[in-house]
Design goal:
Blueprint: H1 7-14, E1 26-31, H2 37-52, E2 56-61, H3 66-78, E3 83-86, H4 95-103, E4 108-111, E5 122-126, H5 128-140, E6 149-155, H6 161-179, E7 183-190, H7 196-210, E8 216-219, H8 222-234, E9 242-243, H9 250-258, E10 263-266, H10 269-284, E11 293-296, E12 301-307, E13 310-313, H11 318-322
Parallel strand pairs: 1-2, 1-3, 3-4, 4-5, 5-12, 6-7, 6-8, 8-9
Antiparallel strand pairs: 10-13, 11-12
The structure holds beta-D-glucopyranose.
Beta-D-glucopyranose (BGC) binds next to loops.
């Protein structure tokens, strides 16, 4: 007899079975993207720590697509995970999927990026405003003494709540300097989906509009810094214009060593990802993990933890990023 499987049945047979229990909880981890180096590290640390604690993790990555991420979360819910950990592509679009999780009584932890207007249980992240302050502060400490500094600002994805917080931190430092006439913003824009090619276009537009006379490019992360630096390279300006970043990506640390990028902000991902795994497992087991702060997401004061960040340039790359084992010294030469 010929056996024919309908697609839904085929899916059920092929999808790894998950049998949740308090001792062996199942965690659904929904990521926006795995394109940037950092998210691969987040995933690897999270999964390793969760497994150590006896949990299983089902990982989904949405390739910067809201519809796909909502589908990912809904599929994790229907597979009966005990807890959801979500890095939203779009902090506002995720609200709908979280409603389904609430209905299924599955606790939700927002990881790194906040989910807005939703009933989430925890928010674990870095101090994102401090990231922006570190970036702008780096430029502010190096202003030309005899004239107004001309700066370009490249923000992150407008759909990412963090991008707004990085900007807010930068504003905290830059606004008083702009008011005092010490800094002039010659061009600014948001890099959609944090894409390096979008940052490159913004940098090209800045040079076309404002000329080559630019002192600083305050960029919100390393991926987009790479795009901006590519545009500067093509103009023979790389290394002459101070560029900021964030994440301590390997390529960015190499650029810092070479002098084409001035600084990055190092976020000890291992700490955050393993903390998140511990919190997720505790929540799945019905415990109430301790938090140190709350943040209003439009629906509630979300119990939160904000990890510290470290500004890194050529002078402390070895004593921070390398000393921490985040990169090997030989990879930075
Ligand atoms: C993260 C950054 C990252 C950016 C792009 C932000 O929400 O906090 O570390 O570089 O997203 O993925």
């Amino acid at each position: 007899m010929k056996i024919r499987l309908v697609p839904a049945l085929l899916f059920l047979l092929l999808a790894p079975a998950v049998f949740a229990s308090k001792e062996k909880p199942v965690i659904g981890l929904s990521l926006d993207t795995l394109k940037e180096e950092r998210w691969q590290r987040d995933r690897d640390t999270f999964v390793a720590e969760a497994q150590k604690l006896g949990a299983t993790v089902i990982v989904q990555s949405a390739n910067s697509d809201d519809i796909r991420q909502i589908r990912d979360v809904e599929s994790l819910i229907s597979r009966g995970v005990d807890v959801l950990v979500v890095v939203p592509h779009n902090g506002a679009a995720m609200t709908r999927a979280i409603k389904s999780a609430n209905e299924a009584k599955i606790p939700v932890i927002a990881y790194d990026r906040l989910i807005l207007n939703a009933n989430i249980d925890y928010y674990l992240t870095f101090d994102n405003v401090k990231v922006g302050e570190a970036q702008a502060g780096y430029a502010a400490a190096r202003l030309p003494a005899d004239r107004k500094a001309r700066i370009v600002r490249i923000y992150g994805a407008p759909t990412d709540n963090n991008a707004k917080l990085f900007k807010q931190g930068q504003d905290n430092v830059l606004q008083p300097l702009i008011t005092a006439g010490k800094v002039e913003v010659v061009h600014e824009d948001w890099a959609l989906d944090w894409k390096p090619e979008n940052a490159k276009k913004i940098m090209n537009a800045a040079i076309t509009k404002a000329g080559r006379n630019i002192d600083f490019v305050v960029v919100s992360n390393d991926g987009t810094a790479g795009g901006a630096i590519q545009a500067l390279l093509e103009e023979g300006l790389a290394g002459k214009v101070l560029v900021t970043g964030q994440d301590a990506d390997l390529a960015a640390c190499q650029r810092i060593q070479r002098g084409t990028q001035a600084m990055t902000v190092y976020k000890p991902l291992k700490q955050l990802a393993s903390l998140a795994a511990r919190v997720a497992v505790d929540v799945a087991r019905g415990l109430k993990p301790a938090t140190t702060a709350t943040l209003d997401n439009g629906t509630k004061a979300v119990p939160s933890i904000f990890e510290k960040v470290i500004a890194v340039d050529k002078t402390n790359l070895m004593t921070t990023v390398v000393a921490d084992g985040f990169h090997q010294a030989e990879d930075l030469r």
